[in-house]
Specification:
Blueprint: E1 2-9, E2 18-21, E3 26-30, H1 37-47, E4 77-85, E5 100-108, E6 113-117, E7 120-122, H2 124-130, E8 143-144, H3 148-153, H4 157-168, H5 171-428, H6 434-501, H7 507-515, E9 528-530, H8 535-542, E10 549-551, E11 571-573, H9 582-591, E12 600-602, H10 605-615, E13 618-620, H11 624-630, E14 639-641, E15 647-648, E16 653-654, H12 665-855, H13 860-938, H14 943-950, H15 955-972, H16 979-1041, E17 1045-1050, E18 1060-1065, H17 1079-1096, E19 1101-1105, H18 1113-1126, E20 1131-1135, H19 1139-1143, E21 1147-1152, E22 1160-1165, H20 1166-1177
Parallel strand pairs: 3-20, 3-21, 8-19, 10-11, 13-14, 19-20
Antiparallel strand pairs: 1-2, 1-4, 4-5, 5-6, 6-7, 9-12, 14-15, 15-16, 17-18, 21-22
Helix pairs in contact: 4-16, 5-12, 5-13, 5-14, 5-15, 5-16, 6-12, 16-17, 17-18
Length: 1181
């Protein structure tokens, strides 16, 4: 199976549909960095079902879709298709008949991914199963991208084991085992669930049985209750009919009495209407008189109110006049006081204005003196600041020189202390003797040689132990097979022998034989043998005589004549009769058939004589048709028998059919003889194999002990070598540190001397500058003191002048404020006087108006109108009393008529209620009759029989029976009437569950057997693959490295479920770990392992992504030769920048990126290109 084409569209940088033809065995992919070469490898990995985005160098699976560039938009889907050439039918299964197999994967931008095989949509699992065990896939070794070499070297033991499993082709077994294990888990869950359901169903069954019993009782009580209830309904129906008849008679009597009462009521109502009209006219007259009375009362009230209002108004006006006169007096007094205050504030204003002019003159005088005093102050302050600044700078410089001096002294002390300490350390340094190092190195080399020798012995013993283990396993498997065969043969032999021993099923006959001590004697079928295929013929002729026994003399049977057996039985006599059979032989020759005796072999001569007697005239024939044609040649007493057991005489044909327990006894006896021989042979072989196994186990134990001794010696030598190595390294490090430290100390001493001289010169210059600064500081302090005295005097003068100005300003402001206050008081008093004058004018006018209003009020006319209204009211009250008496008399008469009418009406209501009640009773009786009739009809009972029973029982006894049955039903509690049906359903379900449990247990046993079979097959294949890979690795590794050795080892020397370790030792190196190798050596070691796996299980193709990057030219050449050799079985598609690797390609595929972000393909067939070049180079003739 070879790759033919790779088709890409929208995948990463291959946005345009691109077809890559890879039909050759060695195809190289070249191009500059970043052009998209590795995207081709990613495309193949992706189409084969890769589901991890990180394995495709992306964050999410949508990253494989072209996301756009500067000149192109992003596309919506990515598609990759790889086409395989399958004309050799290397792919098995449903796709084996296709010459080409196309695998395609399409991914949409929304995350929907579809897989296709030959344009048929399939699952990802189908593609995974298609390449399972071929090395191609997620865990396979056929795709080696960048960084995978280092991952193989750094792989964990279990990850390295997965490569070996893929090469062994047992990954499919792993998948099947996992599926089987998951099914087993689900089956056990189902089993647990069914067990729970069964337990729950059992409890339900117990509960349903109790409910079914209660339901039976409930049905019985319900029938009894139904019968009593039906009787009660019949009696209640008869009672309701009697009630209805009585109600009809009562209704007729009440209706007559109601007609009489209604006539009396109508007469009373007519008289009431006449009297009511009289009452209405009297009430109208009373209302008119009362209206007049109300009018005169209103007029009297109005006049009383007017008189009261007039009197109140006069009192109010009198009070207002007194108040106005008091206000006039107070206003005159207030006006006089305000006039006096106004004169006082005019005088105060004149005095304050004069004081204000004086304060302004004084303020101006003090302000004119202030600038001269301030200028003198600023001059003194500037001089004082300058002197103080100079002093501060000189003091800072002096402090700086002091710190320099102290720092220099401190540095000198530190340098001297360090110098002395280094000298002391230099004197204390110790050097290691070189001869001691040489001796230590020699001892370490000797120990390493001894260690290598022990390792070699260890490996030889391990190989020998492996061979012995394989030999022991082979013998063990042979013994197991022999034991299995022996157990089967023994079981078959025992079964047949048991069947032979149980031929007689007649217990009476068996007891008779036991009584006569004949049960232990051998039977005839045990003494004879017949050729195969003629057993039925002999059984058909002899029948029960096959089970006969031999006896010395038949005369002894006379003792048993009266105690014959209860079944058919034959006894023959032991005799030495040697009669001649010439007559029979002549007949045989006459009919041209052999006697049946020629096919029988007897152990004893006596038995042969009996058979001659019984079978002397029996001949064999091949088939029934031939026998029918020769039956006319038979004499009386002669017969022919076929292989099938059909018997032919001169005048009859007897068809054979097995009809007794003796059928098959001869064939079983023959099989027992053969089985006994086979068992003896197997037991002999088994004994020899067990002896071989004992010897192999002894040899294995001895080898294992020798291996343990060598391991202990190796461990001791290795510990000694490690100890010597540590001591040597320690001494070398001490020597190196001592020499290095001595050089460091000499260098530091010279540096300290230079620094010490520099610090001393700095100290001398700092002392000189410090003395000069002290003299200058004394002079500057005197100048500062004089400048400070002058500045303080100027400051006091300036402060006094400022105080005077502030005081003058304050006085001026106070006087100005007093002037403003006087003016505001004058204005305020003038406004008050003006307001008082206006108030006086208003009060005078108001006083005059009040006097005029009081004089216009008079009470006499109102008093006269009130007296006339009171006289008219008395006359109206007299007429009102007369009308009211008349209305009262009419009302009494109406009351009497109303009472009479109400009595008749009440009596009529009573009669109507009685009629209605009686009608309700009638209706109730009718309803009861219809209800009881309906209940009786619905009850489906025989009313005639119930009528006979109803005469025997009254209602009270029936009700007591009903109450008793109801109480018994209530005692039963909640009754599940469906319990009987549910019980039957539950029992059927229990039977179904038991069957399901049996099926599931059988399924679990089947799955466990499958898992055990898979584990055995996996272990065997993995062990074989491990041995072969180590063999190939020991051949390929020296080729790549031109020497050295490499091997795979199981962790802790265990095969099952353990990881692998890759041990590699290039030529001339004794490293114990592969991690100590260089990058190129690691790459070559990984390639050796991968090619060993390819040699064991060649993958259809191999993709290599710059695996030759860490190799030099010589290793690259060996790598290319190895790839060429492997290309005979595997197709290689490789990416490389190395010219040597490019040279081995049969076809080069160039990847370019002329348009930014878009990859394109340029393919060159090197064979065609070479031919084309040769044609060009040929000279033109």
């Amino acid at each position: 199976m070879r790759l033919a084409h790779i088709k890409l569209a929208g995948f990463k940088s291959f946005v345009d549909p691109t077809v890559i033809t890879v039909s050759q065995d060695l195809v190289g992919i070249v191009g500059p960095n970043g052009c998209g070469k590795s995207n081709i490898i990613d495309a193949v990995r992706w189409v084969l079902g890769e589901s991890k985005a990180s394995a495709l160098r992306g964050d999410s699976m949508q990253d494989v879709i072209f996301s756009g560039s500067d000149n192109r938009k992003a596309v919506g889907r990515a598609s990759v298709e790889i086409v395989f050439d399958n004309h050799l039918s290397k792919i098995t299964g449903q796709w084996s008949s296709y010459a080409e197999i196309a695998i395609k994967r399409v991914l949409q931008r929304d995350g929907i991914s579809n897989y296709f095989i030959n344009n048929l949509q399939v699952r990802r699992r189908d593609i995974y199963d298609l390449f399972l065990g071929t090395g191609v896939g997620g865990r396979g070794y056929a795709i080696i991208e960048q960084g995978m070499i280092s991952r193989i070297i750094e792989a964990k033991p279990q990850e390295l084991r997965s490569f070996l499993e893929e090469a062994a082709g047992i990954s499919q077994y792993r998948e099947r085992r996992q599926e089987t294990f998951l099914r087993l888990i689900e089956t056990r869950k189902n089993l647990t669930r069914l067990e729970d359901i069964r337990q729950e169903l059992i409890s339900q069954l117990q509960h349903l049985e109790i409910q079914a019993k209660i339901a039976q009782q409930y049905k019985h009580l319900q029938e009894k209750l139904h019968r009593s209830q039906s009787l009660l309904w019949l009696q209640r129906e008869a009672e309701a009919i009697d009630q209805r008849t009585h109600a009809e008679n009562e209704i007729q009597r009440l209706e007559v009495e109601l007609d009489i009462v209604l006539t009396s009521q109508r007469n009373a109502e007519r008289e009431y209407e006449k009297t009511r009209a009289k009452e209405y006219s009297a009430n109208n007259k009373l209302l008119q008189v009362q209206g007049q009375l109300y009018s005169i009362d209103a007029e009297i009230g109005r006049l009383n109110q007017d008189i009261d209002y007039l009197r109140n108004t006069i009192d109010r006006l009198t009070n207002q006049i007194h108040e106005v006169e008091n206000q006039l007096v107070k206003s005159h007094e207030l006006k006089k006081i305000k006039s006096e205050n106004l004169a006082h504030w005019h005088q105060e204003k004149t005095k304050t204005e004069l004081n204000h002019l004086q304060s302004i003159h004084k303020h101006d005088t003090e302000n004119k003196r202030f600038p001269d005093i301030e200028a003198n102050f600023l001059t003194c302050q500037a001089k004082f600041n300058e002197c103080r600044h100079n002093l501060l700078l000189t003091e800072q410089a002096n402090q700086l020189e002091g710190s320099h001096l102290s720092h220099a002294e401190k540095n000198i002390q530190q340098l001297e202390s360090r110098y002395n300490r280094l000298l002391k350390e230099q004197n204390e340094l110790t050097s290691i003797d070189q001869s001691r190092l040489t001796k230590q190195q020699l001892e370490m080399d000797q120990a390493e040689s001894a260690l290598n020798e022990e390792i070699r012995k260890h490996q030889d013993l391990e190989n020998q132990l492996i061979k012995e283990t394989q030999f022991k396993q082979k013998i063990t498997s042979t013994i197991q097979e022999l034991q299995h065969t022996l157990s089967q043969a023994t079981a078959r032999f025992n079964a047949l022998q048991s069947l032979q021993q149980k031929l007689e099923n007649n217990q009476d006959l068996t007891a008779w034989l036991r009584k006569q001590q004949l049960d232990v004697l051998p039977r005839l079928w045990q003494k004879i043998q017949i050729q195969p295929e003629w057993e039925n013929a002999l059984e058909a002729v002899l029948q029960e005589r096959l089970n006969s026994i031999e006896f010395e003399q038949l005369d002894s049977l006379r003792e048993w004549i009266n105690a014959v057996p209860s079944g058919k039985w034959t006894i023959f006599e032991k005799t030495q009769n040697t009669l001649c059979n010439t007559y029979n032989q002549s007949i045989t020759t006459h009919i041209n058939c052999e006697r049946l005796l020629t096919y029988i072999m007897a152990d004893q001569r006596e038995t042969q004589n009996v058979l001659e007697d019984w079978l002397g005239r029996v001949y064999v024939i091949e088939d029934a048709e031939m026998g029918l044609s020769k039956r006319s040649m038979l004499d009386s007493g002669e017969m022919l028998v076929t292989r099938q057991g059909h018997i032919i005489t001169r005048n009859s044909f007897n068809f054979y059919a097995p009809n007794s327990q003796l059928h098959g006894v001869l064939s079983r006896q023959q099989e027992l003889t053969n089985l006994q021989k086979e068992i003896n042979q197997i037991e002999s072989l088994l004994q020899h194999q067990q002896e071989f196994l004992t010897e192999a186990e002894q040899q294995y134990v001895e080898s294992n002990r020798a291996l343990q001794r060598i391991k202990e010696n190796t461990k001791q030598i290795q510990q000694h070598w490690h100890r010597l190595q540590l001591e040597t390294v320690k001494l070398s490090q001490i020597n190196e540190r001592s020499t290095h430290r001595n050089d460091q100390i000499n260098s530091e001493l010279s540096e300290i001397k230079q620094a010490l001289d520099n610090e001393i010169s700095l100290q001398e210059s700092a002392k000189t500058r410090l003395t000069k600064n002290l003299v200058q500081i004394e002079t500057l302090k005197e100048n500062v003191q004089q400048a400070q005295l002058a500045w303080e005097a100027a400051d006091r003068m300036l402060a006094n002048q400022r105080q005077k100005i502030q005081q003058a300003t304050k006085e001026m402001q106070e006087i100005a404020f007093h002037v403003k206050t006087s003016l505001s008081k004058i204005d305020e008093i003038e406004l008050s006087v003006k307001s008082i004058d206006e108030d006086l004018h208003k009060l005078a006018e108001n006083h005059v108006n009040l006097l005029k209003e009081k004089e216009g009020l008079n009470e006499a006319p109102l008093n006269k109108q009130l007296e006339s209204a009171q006289i008219e009211r008395k006359l109206i009250e007299q007429s009102t009393s007369q009308v009211r008496q008349e209305v009262s008399d009419i009302a009494c008469y109406l009351s009497e008529i109303e009472n009479t009418r109400m009595a008749s009406e009440q009596k009529s209501h009573v009669l109507r209620d009685a009629i209605n009640q009686t009608r309700l009773k009638e209706q109730a009786a009718n309803i009861a009759i219809s209800q009881f009739n309906e209940l009786i009809n619905n009850a489906n009972v025989d009313t005639k029989q119930l009528l006979l029973l109803s005469k025997k029982k009254d209602i009270t006894s029936l009700q007591s029976e009903i109450h008793q049955a109801t109480a018994e039903i209530a005692t039963l509690g909640t009754v599940n009437l469906a319990a009987l049906d549910e019980l039957e359903i539950a029992r059927a379900r229990e039977i179904s569950l038991v069957n399901q449990l049996q099926d599931i247990n059988a399924a679990i046993a089947t799955l466990e057997n499958a898992i055990q079979q898979i584990d055995r097959e996996t272990q065997l294949r993995l062990q074989e693959t491990f041995t072969l890979v180590n063999t190939y690795l020991s051949e390929i590794f020296p080729v790549i490295f031109t020497g050295g050795k490499a091997r795979l080892e199981f962790c802790n020397d265990k095969v099952p479920d353990d990881g692998l370790l890759l041990m590699a030792q290039p030529p001339g190196k004794k490293n114990n770990s592969i991690h100590l190798l260089s990058g190129g050596e690691k790459a070559l070691a990984a390639l050796a392992l991968i090619f060993s796996l390819f040699r064991l299980n060649p993958a259809p193709f191999c993709l290599l992504d710059e695996v030759d990057a860490p190799l030099d030219d010589s290793n690259t050449g060996r790598f290319c030769e190895l790839v060429k050799n492997m290309a005979q079985q595997t197709q290689f598609l490789f990416i490389s920048h190395n010219k040597i690797t490019m040279g081995m390609a049969q076809r080069l595929i160039g990847v370019t990126m002329q348009e930014q972000g878009v990859s394109r393909i340029v393919a060159v067939d090197l064979a065609d290109a070479i031919k084309f070049g040769k044609r060009i180079e040929q000279p033109v003739i």
